[in-house]
Amino acid sequence: MPFEILPGSYCGEAPGPGLVWDSWNYDPALLVVLLILTIFLRHKSSGLAAVAVLFVTFVSPLCALAAGLFSARVVHHVLLVAVAAPLLAAALPRRRKFGPMPLHFLVSTTILWLWHVPSAYDLALRDVAVYWIMQVSLLGSATLFWRAVLANGDAVGGVLWSLAGLIQMGLLGAILTLAPVVLYESHQQAPLLWGLMPIEDQQLGGLIMWVPAMLPYLAVVALLSRRAWNSAGAASA
Q: Using one digit for the tens of pLDDT, what is the confidence trace for 110-140?
């Protein structure tokens, strides 16, 4: 039987290993939103890819799994802020300027860190309204950050701020990995269903945020570096 975590969680019960593939989320309102996004972004491959990532994040069993395992929740958040957000940003209409990158970096970083404060994090898993405030604020602020990085026209600045994003993500992951105690009430029991001690689940989540989460940032750095190289080549030709 699945283990019921805190009441009110949007994704419901945290499934055990034998039930995880039965834990799809078919919330009609969510599916309508994803359909509207698909229609709106249908002419942009990056937009459709972003919708696919959101489908994995909120519809697939990852949604329910993230209600129980902190490591799955980290995957959920990384998909939101480091994969779906830059894909959405790339799909938006191009503008040369989209606000100062330092401001967008500060806002998105602050929101990410604040939602990992234990009291705020656990509240989001107890209350559906707070849960969606968490999701929308994480995705929205990250999309604005990536939009500023990609559309600002300053490839070198974009590289530097992408690296700043990588560093802050890695720092948060390191803190979570090295924390000596379990920080989140939401994940005190469900990891046991998967043969993990809660502290091991937290450490695994921190490692995911510390290392694999850096890969999307490095991909953007590579893209912007290539753009800067091509621009320099065209200018010197």
A: 999 999 999 999 999 988 899 999 999 999 9
Q: What is the pLDDT of residue 235?
A: 56
Q: Which residues are paired to 3 by β-bridges?
A: 14
State yes or no: pLDDT of 219 exceeds 60. yes
Separation of CA 160 from chain center: 20
- Return contacts of 104-108, CB within 8 angstroms, 24+ apart: 104/141, 104/144, 104/145, 104/147, 104/148, 104/149, 105/145, 105/161, 105/164, 105/165, 107/141, 107/144, 107/145, 108/81, 108/141, 108/142, 108/144, 108/145, 108/165
Distance, in Å, from the CA atom of 236 to the CA atom of 60, rounded to the nearest integer, reads 49
Determine the pLDDT at residue 2. Answer: 39
Q: Is 129 helix (H, G, I), strand (E, B) or coil?
A: helix
**C-alpha to C-alpha distance for 185 and 97, rounded to whole angstroms:** 42
Is residue 4 left, alpha or beta, with left meaning phi > 0 and alpha meaning psi from -120 to 50? beta
pLDDT-derived band at 19 (thresholds 50, 70, 90) equals: confident
- Here the tokens at position 53 are 């990532």
